[in-house]
Amino acid sequence: MDSIKRFFASRWGIISVGAFIGVFASLLQKWGNPGNMGICVACFERDMAGALGLHRAEVVQYLRPEIIGFVLGSLIAAYLFKEFRPRAGSAPIVRFILGAFAMIGALVFLGCPWRAVLRLAGGDGNAIFGLAGLVCGIWIGALFLKNGYNLGRTQATYTSVGWLLPLTMVGFLVLMLLYPQVEGEAKSGVLFYSLKGPGAMHAPLAVSLGVGLAIGFLAQRSRFCTMGALRDLILFRQTHLLSGFLALLTFAFVTNLIVGQFKPGFEGQPVAHTQELWNFAGMALAGLAFALAGGCPGRQLFLAGEGDGDSAVFVFGMIVGAAFAHNFGLASSPSGVGPHGIAAVIVGLAVCLFIGFTMRKTAK
């Protein structure tokens, strides 16, 4: 056990995890997931919100097993290595709001940080603007952190608190097994299923769940986090987490080349639009929200799997944010930004800046 701990704490450990994610995210696309979206935490949580009927955008409704696997894989690793530590109480309403606006920003860009990297690895030039926005948002968040921003201390709490999100994910898996998709039907029992569009594109359930469990396990051990990689580089000039970030990009790119999925360009990219300013601004909002909340959307799922109730609140905030984004015309589509997406980004940036300025130890 100690040797495993040391390996995943090392640079080669984080590189191996990034490589694993890059390879299997690209393969999931080959096996049925949407183009340049082998894994997208924001998009997949959006699909789950649709499957539960929280929004009725018919093309993005599917209860993604990868997300379930992320949480349960992390839970297994945390218990195996005695790191399951239930805790909560650090400004939960703020985390919920940050989760909602992080999702809105991500859906204006059409992807989370993971998908931004995977889009670039697949040849989508529009991802360059999204990644630039992500860096900008995290840089602003880092400035707040340097000047005393703090959501307060978490406290140890009941074991049941740490189990609530994992149990929710088990419940989602049970629903998928009880109400599998019926061919040609948009609803099965209580679940909604897309018949066309990204929601209708998915790898087999067992494959998606297996990959999700493996990534959840490995990411919990290595503390993999795309936001943390950029934050640590900006604040401390540390490149440990960045090694995993770059490994994800490199191995996804190589895998795409091998399987014939690399298609460079800006126009006609899968589930993407070419409005550069709002690709940048949407991810700037998401990056700022992730920085203020302390982790990218994947990391929030892994933390929730090891008992962090505050991260679970952030996850629920993202799911509710997805419902708002599609119910109120905030999310983008391949044709461009939604009718109210620009206003939502501006409001979201204002809210995040308000939180950043007012939640500092030096604030009176």
Structure summary:
With about 375 residues, this protein is mainly alpha-helical. It is built from 15 helices and four strands. A two-stranded antiparallel sheet has the order 1-2. The protein has a two-stranded antiparallel ribbon with strand order 3-4.
Helix-strand sequence: HHHHEHHHEHEEHHHHHHH
Average pLDDT, all residues: 97
Q: What does the largest sheet look like?
A: 2 strands, antiparallel
Tell me the count of domains. Answer: 1
Query: Number of helical segments?
Result: 15
Protein name: Membrane protein
Keywords: Membrane, Transmembrane, Transmembrane helix
Transmembrane segments: 12-28, 62-81, 93-116, 128-145, 157-179, 199-219, 240-260, 280-299, 311-329, 341-359
Summary keywords:
single chain, 364 residues, mainly alpha, two-stranded antiparallel sheet, two-stranded antiparallel ribbon, 65% helix, 2% strand, transmembrane helix
Q: Helices and strands in order, then pairings?
A:
Elements: H1 2-9, H2 11-30, H3 41-51, H4 65-80, E1 87-88, H5 92-109, H6 113-121, H7 127-146, E2 155-156, H8 159-178, E3 187-188, E4 191-192, H9 205-222, H10 226-236, H11 240-259, H12 276-293, H13 297-305, H14 309-327, H15 341-358
Antiparallel strand pairs: 1-2, 3-4
Helix pairs in contact: 1-2, 2-9, 2-11, 3-14, 4-8, 4-9, 4-13, 5-12, 5-14, 5-15, 6-7, 6-11, 7-10, 7-12, 9-13, 10-11, 12-15, 13-14
Keywords: Membrane, Transmembrane, Transmembrane helix
Protein name: Membrane protein
Transmembrane segments: 12-28, 62-81, 93-116, 128-145, 157-179, 199-219, 240-260, 280-299, 311-329, 341-359
